[in-house]
Amino acid sequence: AKERGEGGCQRYTAGMEARGAERNRRTAALRTAIMEDQMVVFFQPVVTLPEGRITGAEALVRWQHPTDGLVGPGAFIETAEQSGLIVPLGTWVLRAATREAATWPGEQTVSVNVSARQLREPGFPGVVAAALRDSGLPAHRLTVEITESVAVGGGATGENLQGLRDLGVRLSLDDFGTGASTLSLLATCPVHQIKLDRSFVPDAGGSDAIADAVAQMARAFAVQAVAEGVETAEQAARMAALGYDRAQGFYFARPMPAADMKARLNVAEAR
Ligand code: C2E
Ligand code: CA
Ligand code: CA
Ligand code: CA
């Protein structure tokens, strides 16, 4: 029994080492990718409801892998978070997205995802201020998307959120409804916008009770309500009827390269 126990322990240790080595390999590959400029920013239009007019876009990072092709963030954001690489990667996305948005033909806004880890870093508002200054994008055209994990806070989170508000940047609570602290966070962390998580956008025949409740909450707090993951005309109509101001989703447009996004905006502006 003892031997078996030791053997089990060894196997467990070997497994842990293998996982550690795999993690190191992933981290090294990601670091190289960031250094060698293999990251690209895609943009997904955000539209008005019910008209469907483009008012801006969300910046979504992709990895243009030399052999694997275009890799989505689901495959590397966790590695970036665990290794701390999310900080330089996030800064890179912020700078690339603001630089691009500054070239758009109108007053459209750009939304950038910021991880809890970035938001804990002392001096984060300075990083944002530098990106705005260097790109020439006015602060009110940048929305910083945060998730409820910021409620855990720590580090400089509180003062950074205030620093961002002072800059005139807009704040959005992403994946709204998925965290336990949603309600208390709305009260303690004033934001300009909430984005209903796409899991609460009702499917055909499904209940819209949560989407309805969140829309009412948004009105009560006087924040803009965005419906994410809208895939059908029916969903768009239902979210509009519930009072959502904005929507994003495959029904309107998929995330696309910067050049395609700009071409769309130019067409829309010319109309
Ligand atoms: P998110 O911030 O909730 O972004 C929305 C995700 O939903 C995107 O996935 C988008 O492509 C997808 N989506 C949009 N419309 C639809 C739809 O109609 N149906 C469905 N099924 N999906 C839709 P993506 O680009 O794979 O990004 C996944 C997540 O990775 C993002 O979720 C965000 O949490 C994270 N992420 C992306 N870029 C960044 C970044 O620059 N920094 C950080 N920290 N996280 C990022
Ligand atoms: Ca987001
Ligand atoms: Ca989201
Ligand atoms: Ca759905």
UniProtKB/TrEMBL annotation:
**Sorted alphabetically, which keywords does the UniProt record give?**
Membrane, Transmembrane, Transmembrane helix
Name the record gives this protein: EAL domain-containing protein
Domain EAL, which positions? 23-269
Write the span of the intact protein that is present: 605 to 875 of 876
